[in-house]
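re: ur msg from earlier - yeah i can do the NA7 complex, just paste it... oh wait u already did. ok heres what im feeding in:
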Amino acid sequence: MNTTTTDRRHHEVIVLGAGVSGIYQIKRLVDMGVDAIVLEGDDDLGGTWNRNRYPGCRFDSESYTYGYSFSQEVLDEWHWKEMFSAQPENLRYLHFVADKFDLRRHMTFGARVATMTWDDAATQWTLQLESGDVYTARFVITSLGPLSAPTLPKYPGMADFKGKAFHTFHWPKEPVALDGRRVAVIGTGATGIQVVGAIAPIVGELTVFQRRPNWSSPLNNSPISDEEMARIRARYDEIFDNCAKSPGGFEHVPRWGFWDKTPEERKALWDELYTQPGFAILAGNFAEIFFDEAANQELSNYIADRIRGRVHDPATAEKLIPKDHGFGLQRLPLETRYFEAYNQDNVHLVDLSETPIERFTETGIQTTAGHHEFDVIVYATGFDAITGAYDRIDITGVDGVRLADKWKESPSTFLGVLSHGFPNLLMVAGPQSVSGSTNFPRAIEVGVDWVTGLLEHARANGISRIEARPDAESEWVAEVERAHERMLFRRSKGWFTGYNSNVAGHQEGKIRYQAYFGGSPRYVAAIQHETETGYASMVMS
Ligand code: NA7
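and the outut:
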């Protein structure tokens, strides 16, 4: 489907991706009167919410903190139905916003970019699509999404399996029959945990293949009534203000003073937070849990006891309790009746650390302990996070340097927006920004506004080339590394530290500094400082 009103192949700005950030970015560019289009590889807009159609897929952010804040009309008109809205509704919301501002006509779908090459003489990017079509643009804004490059394991015989098998990111649009079926879920990250909770009541037999357990705490979802929505609407300014002040972009606010309380007082607080919605137990807890090993251990013990209290079989409960990292030191999945699923006779946990997968067969999966037969295999095996979507485009900058080579060990950016040697490539929600580490839309609105301001500055001053200074970039990378080093999760293995065993070149134990963990207010202060100093860290001509 191509809904663009023009077939022209040159534009001042090309935006890559029509997800949450691309939609807002094109809105700002259209309002500015810039000649801009969006190229989207998928067949429609929505990004992550267009793709992830698996059962149980929903926000972990309170819906009203996830929605856009930029339009009073949208805030007035949209009614969130649940505290943590599910994928179909989230996709409807993005369609509603795009249609309201008539943004589709600026979007070309099925337009996946294969290569992007900087032409210094012409001061422009040349983009070659997989279809062979070629576009050029003075500026390219990437809104590729931090979790848009799914990864599969590499087990022998995977292609032999004759039943249905797909990654959660590629869950089919048409309904998948699960009732009474024998289903395997591989992976117990945020996605696997959502899937298991949602399908356990439906399927015939469910077998969960767990390599490492993840900590998880209750989502505590609930419907939002008309009256409640009216109260939320009246409070929107305050809500977004609260989000802007908190490190994670949520209304939950961390507190200091762990050691000022008695163990009984801490437990009383946790009893309360465990029953509150969303990330309360993480982002509304004592800040010490992220920095102080003993504080984190005490909270981990508390959550472990909660798991023991919910899973009837003690041996299964122990398998579900992480031993290699503390609570909140990897991206915390939120769950709905996940632990209770294991109390069902038809739900089985396979601990891959004890009985690894040997191979896939035509009918199922062979582990060292035996053969499991399946009708459906679900890969909830995660993503080549944050930089993966960049690596999948062959991006070549000044002097033929490839971005994938520059970022081979770890990305290097200025404020997560620019990378030296790649002029006029502006990243929204890019590596080393806060978009991977905080409530996503709060971060991307900041990112889009800042990139838009930079383009306004360029237009007003006749600037056609923008590049980050290498020293400024090194300073930002050092700040990103410092923020990592302060936090306990620097030693954990999840995608926050850039590790994925399914991606060639990723080394266990070697951090890729992909996201900025200094918190939203500090990030915003850094980008504001850059604006206020007249973009002093950039070379503009
Ligand atoms: P995650 O959080 O990266 O989780 C992936 C899961 O898949 C995790 O449990 C992995 O185990 C497991 N995995 C990955 N590769 C394999 C292989 N080869 N064999 C067995 N198990 C494997 O991705 P999610 O999709 O759950 O969540 C991503 C984000 O989406 C989430 O944080 C939210 O922001 C939304 P491991 O822990 O690596 O041992």
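cool cool. Confidence is low (pLDDT under 50) at residues 1-5. ping me if u need the other ligands too
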